Amino acid sequence: MYKVSIKALLPAPDGRIVLLLNEREEWELPGGQIELGETPPACLAREIAEELGLQVAVEAPLDSYLFEVIPGRHVFIVTYRARLTGPFEPRLSHEHRRWALFAPAALPANLPQGYRASILRGLQAGSPENS
């Protein structure tokens, strides 16, 4: 049985992507482990509020895949689009080392491939020619 983690492609008002630096020194999308009885959108809204103090609306699912976090430890990742519903005033929780904004064309090297693929999929799905 794998843990399930719900993650968000969350653009800042300027279009850059919100990423969090974890304890493994990898950038990741905001979000986290779903709790028993919780829906994925409720999980994501809760996790983003906890991690960044931001309010969001969760939109369409983008992607899902099995991710090997460390050798022998896998997590099932489900990514969604999310959009801000309140001000963009991030407050970092104790769960991450820092947050940062990255232009889609300048994502960090230490961003796992699955997150990178979800970001690209979400940006393509949100482009005017695909709407």
From TrEMBL:
UniProt xrefs under PANTHER family: 8-OXO-DGTP DIPHOSPHATASE-RELATED, GDP-MANNOSE MANNOSYL HYDROLASE
Cofactor: Mg(2+)
Entry keyword set: Hydrolase
Name by which UniProt lists this protein: 8-oxo-dGTP pyrophosphatase MutT (NUDIX family)
PROSITE patterns: NUDIX, NUDIX_BOX
Ranges for domain Nudix hydrolase: 1-124
Gene Ontology MF terms: hydrolase activity
